[in-house]
Amino acid sequence: MPSTATKRYCFQLTVRPELLDEYIARHTPVWPEMLAEIAAAGRRNYSLFLGDGGRLIGYYETDDDEAARAYLANSEVAARWEAEMGRFFVGLEGRPDQAATPLTEIFNLHDQLTAAQAAATATENESTAS
């Protein structure tokens, strides 16, 4: 059974350097119907960051990424968008929204602060119980 807790996802792609200006223009703005499909899929707080050499980092949050991916894979709007976007990327097999290289999260400030606060509270409770 999929978890209902919000999870963070990050991915990396490389935009062809000769197409950077056009890639940026295509996202300024994205088609309204594509924005609606991303939201309907359950992805939130979605951002793309462009670095040197065409390095593209994407980030989003969702409660069920498997369901979000399936929704977008079956979306006619997303299929049209991804068909147009595929030519912008280096070394990509398949649709960009389905084939991007995922990155592993190794640190999150909120999660670690929450864990540290919980540990401190537990230690405090143990001290007062003794």
Automatic annotation (TrEMBL):
Pfam families: rhaM. Transmembrane segments: none annotated. InterPro entries: Dimeric_a/b-barrel, Rham/fucose_mutarotase. This is L-rhamnose mutarotase. It comes from Microbacterium jejuense.
